[in-house]
Amino acid sequence: MPQDWQGVARLPSPVSTAGADPLADGIPNLRPAALRGIHSTVNTPNGPAPMPCPSIPMPNAFEPTARTCITRRDAMRAAVVTAGASALACGMSPVEAAAPAKPDIRRGALKRYDIKKSINLWAFPYPERMNLQECLQLAKDAGFDGIELNYDLDNDLSPKGGTKEFVAIRKLADKIGIQISGLCSFLFWPYPLTSNEPAKRARGLELAGRIAQCASDMEVENVLVVPGAVHIPWRNDHEPVRNDICDQRAKEAIAQLARTAARQKVFLNIENIFFNGYLMTPMEMNAFVDHFGNERVRVHFDTGNISMFQNAEHWVPVLGKRTKNIHFKEFTKKGTDYSLETFRPLLDGTTNWPAVIDELDRLNYRGFVTFEYFHPYIHYPEALIWQTSDSLDRMLGRKA
To answer: Are residues 123 and 241 in the same domain?
Structure first.
C-alpha cells in the first residue's frame, strides 16, 4: 500500500464567499473552482492557503467508528454544493433542477381524472396459486383503489359460504385497505336467465339472487348482471333463443330481482355483452334499463365487449348517467379471433382510451374503472397486476 495512504475519505468543503452560506442564503455561490473539485482558500500570514477539509476515518467492520468532527450542517452544505454543481454541469440553474418535470404525453394523460381504478380477480392466479388474502394485498400494494370479486360455485364467494363468511371477507378487505368495487360472475352463462330450459332459468334466477345477497352482506353496492342471451358462442349446450322471447324473459327476471334490490342496498348493473346477440346498441340498452323505472337497475358498461364492430367512446355519452360501473377491457381490431382470447392487457390494443376517458369525464363519472382479463400470467403472475396499475395511472393522469 502506498506510504502516503492515510486511510481517510474526504468530503468537499462548501464554497466560501464573503457572507455566503448555502443554508442561510438558499442557493450557494458556485465558482468554477468548486466544479473542478478545488477547495476554497483562506488568507494566512504567508499568503493564500487551501482551506483544511475535515476527514472521516474508514469504517472498521468489527469495531465502532469514533465520532468524527463532521457535523450535520457540514454534510447538508456539501449536499447543496453537489446538487448545485450537478445542475450547472447539465446547463440548468439549481432552481430549474428542483422544479417538477413537465407533463409529457409520452408518459401519460396530461389531465388527471378523478376516477377510481380497480382490477377483477380473474387477473390473479386465484385460487390455484394465490389465496384471496394474497390477492387483496397484492392489489393494494400495486396501488389499486378497489378489486372486483367473482361469485362461483366452489370458492370463497359461493353458495358454500354465508353471511358470516362474506362479512369476514369484507372485514379482511377493510383491514388491508382496499375497496370491493363490485361482484361479477360467470354463472350467467351455464344458467342463462333467458334459457329455453325452465330448470336452467330457475337456477340462474336463484344464483343471481344469491349473488345480490352476498353483495348486500358485504355492503358492496355493485352487482353485475347478464340479463340474457340469444346465442352463447363459447357453449355448445345452449339452444339459441328467439330475440323477442329473450327480451321478454330478461325483463321478467330483472323485474323479480329488482324487487329486493332497494332493501339489499345493491344496484343491478346490466352488462353489455354483444357476443350474446342481445342489447347490441346503447339505445337498446337504454330502453331496457328505462323499462323498469327503478333507480336500482343501471348499466355496467364494458368497453371491450362491443369493440369488435363498434367504439367504446361512442357508447359512453349515449348511455349517459345510467352507467354505474365500468369494465376497462382492452380489445384489438387487428385480430380475427372473436373469443375471450381476443382481449389484451391494457394499452396493447386498439381502444381509443383518451377519447373514452374524456367522454366519462364529461359525464362527471367518478366511480370505478375495473380491468377485466381472464388469463393470469403463467410465469411471474404478479407482473400483470403491477403492469395494469401502471397503465391505469398513465391513462388517468396519475403519472404524466
So the answer is: yes
Spatial distance between the Cα atoms of 6 and 353, rounded to a whole number of angstroms: 62
Whole-angstrom distance, CA of residue 156 vs CA of residue 150:
9
**Can you say how many angstroms the Cα of residue 125 is from the centroid of all Cα atoms in its chain?**
17
The answer on 85 and 146 residing in a single domain is no
Phi-psi region of 132 (alpha: psi -120 to 50; beta: other; left: phi over 0): alpha
| Per-residue DSSP letter, 345 | S
Report the CATH number that the domain containing residue 348 is assigned in CATH: 3.20.20.150
Domain that residue 237 falls in: 116-395
Cβ atoms of residues 176 and 134 within 8 Å: no
Domain termination site, one of 98, 126, 147: 98
My answer on whether 213 and 70 are in the same domain is: no
For 358, other C-beta atoms within 10 Å of its C-beta total: 15
Based on the domain organization, do 72 and 209 belong to the same domain? no
Q: Is residue 172 part of a domain?
A: yes
135 shares a domain with 77:
no
Instruction: Note whether 27 and 154 are same-domain residues.
Output: no
**Boundary residue ending a domain (98, 125, 149):** 98
- Number of domains comprising the chain: 2
* Ranges assigned E (strand) in the chain: 8-10, 41-44, 47-50, 55-57, 116-120, 146-150, 179-184, 222-225, 267-271, 297-302, 323-328, 330-331, 343-344, 368-371
Is the separation of the CB atoms in 136 and 176 below 8 Å? Answer: yes
Q: What is the pLDDT along the chain (400 residues), one digit of tens a residue?
A: 444 444 444 444 444 444 444 333 443 443 444 334 444 555 555 666 555 544 444 444 444 444 444 555 555 555 555 555 555 555 655 555 556 678 899 999 999 999 999 999 999 999 999 999 999 999 999 999 999 999 999 999 999 999 999 999 999 999 999 999 999 999 999 999 999 999 999 999 999 999 999 999 999 999 999 999 999 999 999 999 999 999 999 999 999 999 999 999 999 999 999 889 999 999 999 999 999 999 999 999 999 999 888 999 999 999 999 999 999 999 888 876 666 667 889 999 999 999 999 999 999 999 999 999 999 999 999 999 999 999 999 999 999 7
End-to-end CA distance of the chain: 52
